[in-house]
Amino acid sequence: MANNIYSPRQQYVLLITCLLVLAGLILFGLGSYITGFLGAGILFVVFRPWYKALVHRRNWNRYVVTVGILVFALVVIILPFTALILMIVNRISYYAQDTSQIMSVLHTIEHKTGFTFTNEQTVRSLLQQGVAWLSQRLPSLASSVLHFVVVIGLMLFTLYFMFTQEGSFLKGLRRYLPFRDGTLEELGESLKNNVNANVLGQALISLVQAVLTGLALLLFKVPDALFWGTVSFFLAFVPVLGTPLVWGPAAVLKLTQGATGQGVGILLVGLVVIMNIDNLLRIVLARRIGDIHPLITLAGVVLGVNIFGILGLVLGPLLLSYFIVLMRVFERENLHRPAPVVEIQTPPTNEAHPQP
């Protein structure tokens, strides 16, 4: 039998290299379908407390509970979320084709201020660029219906096996992830806090703000109040900058149209009610479902949306949180690592012939 030409260390390095190359090829081949697996991981964290309560505590059939969770996720989360995205995409496409309403508002602002800063060609170009940007972020516009259905199917299919084979799935994570048990617990806690804060908590805050924004716009007779209320739901995921991007321009629109009372009313509702509701809910929910610093959320959203699209609202802050956790682990292990002992050798002395 011929001897292998590689040393054990070279074999080890080549094995790791092969694994990394194959993993990169797999990720590259999955392409945009990887969002289905990432979405399954998020839903697994969201619904796992329900699964544990029904399967582990009440001894319900795990397959029946899993199918129920999948149906609930499809009917209550996925389909309504898809409908909201489609509504936004269709309306933005309409505004991109017909710029007369937007130009009318801009001309009114120019007349009030005395400055000319727009033309129809510029506005149309900006709107088309905005639609192109959204087409890369919103899955319903970025791909065909078949591609979208495949992504949803992969997500539900993966979620099914994550729940029905929960034990082997979690055991495999602990076995193959290159972290100690303490680090895995920290990463798991970070994942739980991020999902709770940026999915459950932020979705609730965004829903409340969207309802209040839509009602305020409807009360003060802003056109397309339902549409802009829906837009505010997605914008509310961005801290500080969220809903003011909707009710602020609406107030300016009313002021430029001469409806001073309605414009001031929108500003008062936005500043006094909507903004304070946001702050109050964040304080209450931070104690119950996870506390994530707003700076991490803001920077994570900007980072995540560019990489993962709409899922970046959750995955971006998660990446930053994991980076911070790993930095803490690195710092802790380096501080506790004993310093190397350096032996200082003294030159030998001549015992036989001492100096006088």
TrEMBL record:
Cell compartments where the protein resides: Membrane
Family to which this protein belongs: Belongs to the autoinducer-2 exporter (AI-2E) (TC 2.A.86) family.
Organism field: Hymenobacter telluris
Pfam families attached to this UniProt entry: AI-2E_transport
Key word Membrane present: yes
Lineage: Bacteria, Pseudomonadati, Bacteroidota, Cytophagia, Cytophagales
Topology of this chain in the membrane: Multi-pass membrane protein
Principal subcellular localization: membrane
Entry protein name: AI-2E family transporter
TM stretches of this protein: 34-51, 63-89, 141-163, 199-220, 226-247, 259-277, 297-327
Swiss-Prot/TrEMBL keywords: Membrane, Transmembrane, Transmembrane helix
An example Gene Ontology CC term for this record: membrane
